[in-house]
Amino acid sequence: MNTLLKTVSALLLATALLAFGNTVHAEEANASSNNLAQLIDIAGKQRMLSQKIAKAYFFYGQGIRPDKTRKQLFDSIKEFNANFDLLKKKVKIQGVQDMLVYIDMAKTELAQLANAPYSKENAALVMDYSETMLEGSQDIVVRLEDISKHKKELIVDLSGRQRMLAQRIAKYYIAYQAGFRDHNTIEQLKTAVAEFEKAHATLRKAKHNTVRIKADLAKVEKLWSVVARFYKDVERGGLPVIVLATTDNIMESMDQITRQYVVVLGS
Fold first, then answer.
1. Does 17 score more than 70 pLDDT?
2. In the 8-state DSSP scheme, what is residue 21?
């Protein structure tokens, strides 16, 4: 199936699934507030993994730290699949189940591309499928948030989204270096950078922050200061190894912070 047919098929399937699964009832979740926060965390992590897979594919394809980035690529695919299976088992909301069917199609195609030789054509498809997986995972996060009575889990979503943005920024940065120098690549990168900085400022003021969370957010801010200038001047390029390592450190720190918010909400 060529790229156009794949795109049309995906759009038709997405339209049908969204039309079928619009109604969500709180009783379908069958989860306590803490369990709901955990599920939002997992669904949010899927957003991050969708971007991390594509990012690792580009870094590996460019021969940058190939041993590390190849392992990261396939470890991320494995983790995405494990989380996918967990959400399919634990969340019985019909709309979520329908969206998982949509995501399954994209993740299967992406996994096949990961095992194929790197090419610019394949890289473009990886980019497209990573966007499909991101959009589907975001839809699941929103559906889970909609069944929250107190909406306090929103802080988990905001923090968890930072994990995704860190990887998304690195994905578009390395895609630009790999020759994807169109207007969309630059704009997506700039938008993600702005969203990351805005969300970080909000998290620094969050009432749920413990002493440890405040310290970890300060660490993220310090790491961000190292790489932000590369993202904001992507045309200049350079130092991809530093970008890779620092971005992953930011993602790991935000993952720890997000898990801490889950604990705080459950206490």
1. no
2. S
The whole domain housing 64 covers 3-20+30-266
167 within domain boundaries: yes
Q: What is the pLDDT of residue 5?
A: 40
Q: Count of domains in the chain?
A: 1
Listed residue (64, 50, 35, 78) closest to 251, CA to CA: 50
Task: Using the structure block, give the residue that is written with the tokens 């996918």.
Answer: 84
Alpha helices in 93-146 (DSSP H): 94-114, 120-146
Q: Using CA atoms, how far apart are residues 28 and 93, in angstroms rounded to an integer? A: 6
d(C-alpha 170, C-alpha 176), whole Å: 10
221 found inside a domain: yes
Say if 233 falls within a structural domain: yes
Q: Which of 154, 131, 152, 155 is nearest to 142 (CA)?
A: 154
Phi, psi angles (nearest 5°) of residue 152: -70, -15
How far from 195 is each of 128, 202, 204, 209, 221, CA to CA, in Å? 21, 11, 14, 20, 14
Exposed e or buried b per residue across 182-219, where buried means at least 16 C-beta atoms within 10 angstroms of its C-beta: eeebeebbeebbebbeebbeebeeeeebeeebeebbee
37-47: burial string, b at 16+ Cβ within 10 Å, e else = bbbbbbbbbbb
> Percent of the chain beyond pLDDT 70?
85
Q: Is 62 contained in some domain?
A: yes
